[in-house]
Amino acid sequence: MMTGKHLCAALVVLSVIATGPAWAQEPETAQDWGEYQIGPEDVLDIAVWNNTAISRVVPVRPDGKISLPLLRDVQAAGLTPMQVRDILVKKLADYMPSPEVSVIVREVHSPKVSVIGEIKTPGRYELKSRTTVLDLLAQAGGFTEFASRGRIVILRRDGGSVKRIPFNYNKVISANGEQENLVLQPGDIVLVP
Asked: Sign of the C-alpha dihedral, residues 83, 88, 94, 98?
């Protein structure tokens, strides 16, 4: 028969086994995911405490800026919501004491990837978190009958140059998994010859 101490110890052991050791888990780091950077066409919810005249939902324009009363144009694209908040707090400090501001990304529209070539529905697609090449190919309706599945190339900007990353669909879907299903990045172009 299990005593209270034994039951408690058993529960602790089971919880450790179920979650695994802390050192074995790979945390999601900023390097893996990064903090979201606002982009053109995103929609932001700007809330200024006790000021409904400035608080509003604003789209990020194609030039990367948002427009707010008193503050005119404010750069948002390429910044995190916290960085935009800090800029707004500094600008609003000229008009009110200790402004309390929140910036929430209401809609994400900016990160896009393209798929072109021998694909049923070529075009630009919104990039969702952790979208892989296989995800994009499925979203684009799959291959045409003329597609060269073993010669797919991902074009990715790398500073001032463009990097060509080979992707072999056949190897990715094979049982032995010789190649990794690549996670796409904003601006990637998937070329299916």
From this structure: negative
Which residue carries 């982009």 as its tokens?
Answer: 39
Q: Where are the domains of the chain?
A: 43-107, 112-192
- Residue 29 CA to residue 83 CA, distance in Å, equals 19
Q: What is the mean pLDDT of the chain?
A: 82
End-to-end CA distance of the chain: 68
pLDDT(66) > 80: yes
| Domain 112-192 in this protein, CATH class | alpha beta
How much of the chain is in helix, strand and coil states, percent to nearest 5?
25, 30, 45
Give the CATH number of domain 43-107.
3.30.1950.10
Helix (H) or strand (E) holding 11: helix 4-19
Which pTM was predicted?
0.53
> Which pLDDT band, with edges at 50, 70 and 90, does 40 fall under?
confident
